[in-house]
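Practice problem: predict the structure.
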Amino acid sequence: MQTGGFSTDLAESCVQAFFQASGIGCELSGQKGEVIASAGYSCDKCTLCKSTGISKNDCVRLHAFTAKASEKEDGKYMYECPLGLSCITSAVFTGGTLDRRLTIGPFLMEDRQDFIDYDLVGMMHLEAPVVADISAHLDVVPVVEPQKVSAFSQLLVYSAAFLSTSSSSEGSYLADLDLGTLKAWETENRIDPSETVKMVTSYLEENYSKDVSLLDLAKYVGMTTSYLCRLFKKEQNTTVNAYLTRVRIEKSKELLKTDAPIADIAQMCGFSDQSYFTKVFRQTEGMTPLKYRKNSQNS
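Answer:
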């Protein structure tokens, strides 16, 4: 089927191929959010936000913004949806006009349980019934290694370019990307991974008691949250969330050797409440904070 010079059959084939190759949900949609083609657990099929009261319109507006932002980036834009799940968007052009977007996601670049404990409980402070509802359906969201995300995001750019060129005989979007210019831009703006991660770890060690979000960190180092997650995992072999949790636990162990109330220690170390602090402490140390304190006093 051909619509205004655009083949929806070709779009369906392209989207299906991407999903089959990556295992990540993929969809092609218009600027107003209307879905043209989709495959897998794409944003259009996602119902996880519903439990939190997040409007579907919020997602649509965010996706529309990121499609435009991808023009200013390297043909793709990595970001987090309102719930904190990862997505990547690339613009699709018809006759030189940006009127469609190709989006992959939602997906996770961290362990599902880490996402539940840190993002849903620790950062968003969602109520237990809401967390339980989201957790029960989270297995449909794929977990993707950061290294593979980088490859899939580049494949997304090529897929968007293919759909753009196939809809118009007046020019080639793939040629317009000018890979030589893009490479020069990457070289000119190259970030030293070790220095960037050092900035992040220093920031976390200084601000562990605060409500630190990935967005805060991304703004601090001047990059997208998704790119920061990939870079940090590659350099540290752990996630940002896991690193922050470890810093908080180590700080709490120092304070547990004092007479400070455990509830106060939890707050001083950036945990939402004593119950959550106890749960995380037990998971990492194999005992409750109270038992750790008693052991420290007896040693």
